[in-house]
Design goal:
about 0% strand, globular
Length: about 150
């Protein structure tokens, strides 16, 4: 079962990464951020089980996992997009974690019906992306003693 779950996770990571790459190619800054977020959000409800499989550690042969391009390419895409904001380590990793947490949290809450307010989810998503763009453009400098 672990092997099957791991293979599903790798398949899903490849599928999602292709969508992220297609959405963001040739874009930068807010345009890339919005395209990345929309591609993430569109994949999730279309393949909820596959998406869920990508959120846990992959229980598969490490050699097979290392050969799969999806997870590694997804990270490269996120880092590349954020370099457009002038970020460098360790802030780059912190920003990737913030985006993943935000995008995952939004789709998980939406899937669970966790947004009961009358305000449009589309408006909330757009406003959240405006806020993320502003934050990324003014990312706090690295604290003294902070290392990767």
């Amino acid at each position: 079962m672990d092997d099957l779950g791991g293979r599903i996770a790798l398949l899903a990571a490849d599928e999602k990464t292709v969508r992220l790459a297609e959405a963001t190619v040739g874009r930068s800054g807010k345009d890339a951020l919005v395209a990345f977020a929309h591609a993430w959000r569109e994949y999730t409800p279309q393949h909820p089980g596959r998406y869920a499989a990508t959120q846990a550690p992959i229980g598969i042969d490490p050699e097979l996992a290392a050969q799969a391009p999806g997870p590694r390419r997804a990270v490269e895409l996120a880092y590349g997009m954020l370099r457009g904001y002038g970020l460098a380590e360790p802030g780059l990793t912190d920003a990737v974690r913030l985006l993943r947490s935000t995008f995952h949290g939004f789709v998980a809450l939406e899937a669970a019906g966790g947004f009961a307010h009358e305000r449009s989810l589309q408006q909330s998503r757009a406003r959240s992306l405006d806020a993320l763009h502003a934050l990324l453009g003014h990312w706090p400098s690295t604290r003294e003693g902070d290392s990767s």
